[in-house]
Input
Amino acid sequence: MKSKILSALLCVSMVAVMLTGCGSNNDSQGAAPAPETENSSEEAAPAEEEQQVTASEASEDGGYELALVTDLGTIDDKSFNQGAWEGMEKYAKENNISYKYYQPQEGTTDAYIETIGLAIEGGAKLVVCPGFLFEEPVYIVQDQYPDTSFILLDGEPHDADYNYKTNNNVMPILFQEDQAGYLAGYACVKDGYTKLGFMGGMAVPAVIRYGYGFVQGADAAAEEMGVDVEIMYNYTGAFAATPEAQAMAASWYQNGTEVVFGCGGAVGNSVMAAAEEAGAKVVGVDVDQSPESDTVITSAMKELSNSVYEGVKEFYEGSFPGGSTSVFTAANDGVGLPMETSKFETFAQADYDALFAKLSGGEITIQNGTEDSTTADLTLAKTKVNFVE
Output
């Protein structure tokens, strides 16, 4: 039985003009002090330097070859900073390379550029920049520091007018979020959930891709099972945790929604709070968010640490893929679900492995909603999904 689609709910993709991740917490106004890691060998930098650092032992010349400049937050944020740090740290430890992270005091282009400069003055040959807020800073520093290489996680360098340019010393990394969303949507329906919700943050391409994949994964599972699925679908317009987002999620749960994909940084915290009160379920985003709340049954993940590890590895092997964007997909283990911590009752590891193999092998095509941002909508030929207002 075919059912109705309210495609207007999804046409907001026309406002999206840039590639970005949905793991950044943009409601933060400044960085918290950086925690120490187990191998830290120096105290936090003086306050007048407006930075905090965590480091390995310095190299013989007193410098640090690898550097991470954090986005808003710290390296234990269970999101982009932590994933990037873990990937960089893993390679550094395996190969006895000195490394450090630097934390700006505010999330501005000028602060990021200044902190990147401090990292380079401190000996950095490669600087990892996690998150879309670094797109403009990296656009600038790629020219200022042509002898330094940069990994830009979840973004591509552009100026304030969205003129894109990627020099040979920059490796932009993007992810195929629609595949991660597809895996989550499919798994939820296969596990018996038929009333779903998608609450995105800003309607930027990465968030749209997550949502489109989630819907199409749910649709595919519904077709296989011969059931109909209802989906509440909304973009909050920001990445902040707000009373309004929590109230909306609460109303969805009250009206029968069983699980909501909280896709927009701290928006997910609002969804989790509502789910905890309602005794309902949540799909996390970007990283394994199961430690955040018992309500999280799985997470649509970007394998952030894997991508950074590979980028650092290629840098030291002399095959750094600068000048073009690297895309991480199921085919190169760039996206996935954390099955070891997922709380599914009937969707098993074997089911996941079979679906993942189809995605990685190119057997499944997903309309991700960003091919034409002025006309994109979600019109499926055989849908079992009904969008509910």
In short: The first helix runs from residue 80 to 94. The chain has a mean pLDDT of 83. The two ends are 20 Å apart (CA to CA). The longest strand covers residues 229-235.
